[in-house]
């Protein structure tokens, strides 16, 4: 009896689109969970939640980037650089030494709010691109995803 599940030459043995959608789903679950307290220290990742969110958004970008045009990639790179620039020049948390030479963390609410806006803008832009290329969950007007 012949096995009909054997891939033919030039045919993938699994559906990459399904794995990509699962990966995106899991990344957005992490982002949403971390966003509950954007400025909190995350001992599991040994980083602040906003850094974890940014890294997960970069993973979303890397997952979908093969479908993007050079112009879209350039635009997303500009948005990413804005976030990198803010984190390097005016981070929400700065570590300094107090008068007893003990490390203290200083918090900037204004910087965190600015970062939150940039992260949200980056996320919405990614979701718009995912919708454009049908890489997210299909809605009633679209079919497929990662076709």
Placed side by side, the strands forming the largest sheet appear as 1-2
Sequence stretches where pLDDT stays below 50 over 5 or more residues: none
Strand content: 5-15%
SS content category: mainly alpha
What value does the Rg take, in angstroms? 20 Å
N- to C-terminal distance: 32 Å
How many beta-strand elements? 4
The shape is elongated
Q: Helical stretch count? A: 4
Q: Tell me, rounded to a whole number, the average pLDDT.
A: 89
Main sheet attributes: strand count, strand direction, barrel closure = 2 strands, antiparallel
* Fraction of helical residues: 40-55%
Short recap of the structure:
The protein is mostly helical.
Structure description:
With 147 residues, the chain is mainly alpha-helical. It has one domain. It has helices at residues 16-34, 49-64, 70-89, 109-132, and strands at 41-42, 47-48, 93-97, 103-107. The chain has a two-stranded antiparallel sheet. A hairpin with a 5-residue loop joins strand 3 and strand 4 (103-107). The model has no long low-confidence stretch (mean pLDDT 89).
Write the layout of secondary structure elements.
Elements: H1 16-34, E1 41-42, E2 47-48, H2 49-64, H3 70-89, E3 93-97, E4 103-107, H4 109-132
Antiparallel strand pairs: 1-2, 3-4
Helix pairs in contact: 1-2, 2-4, 3-4
């Amino acid at each position: 009896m012949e096995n009909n599940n054997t891939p033919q030459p030039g045919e993938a043995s699994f559906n990459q689109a399904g794995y990509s959608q699962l990966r995106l789903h899991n990344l957005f679950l992490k982002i949403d969970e971390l966003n509950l307290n954007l400025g909190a220290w995350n001992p599991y990742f040994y980083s602040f939640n906003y850094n974890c969110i940014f890294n997960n958004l970069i993973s979303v970008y890397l997952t979908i980037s093969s479908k993007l045009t050079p112009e879209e990639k350039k635009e997303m790179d500009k948005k990413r650089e804005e976030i990198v620039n803010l984190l390097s020049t005016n981070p929400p948390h700065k570590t300094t030494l107090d008068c007893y030479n003990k490390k203290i963390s200083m918090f900037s609410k204004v910087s965190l709010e600015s970062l939150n806006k940039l992260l949200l803008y980056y996320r919405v832009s990614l979701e718009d691109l995912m919708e454009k290329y049908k890489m997210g969950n299909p809605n009633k007007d679209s079919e497929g995803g990662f076709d």
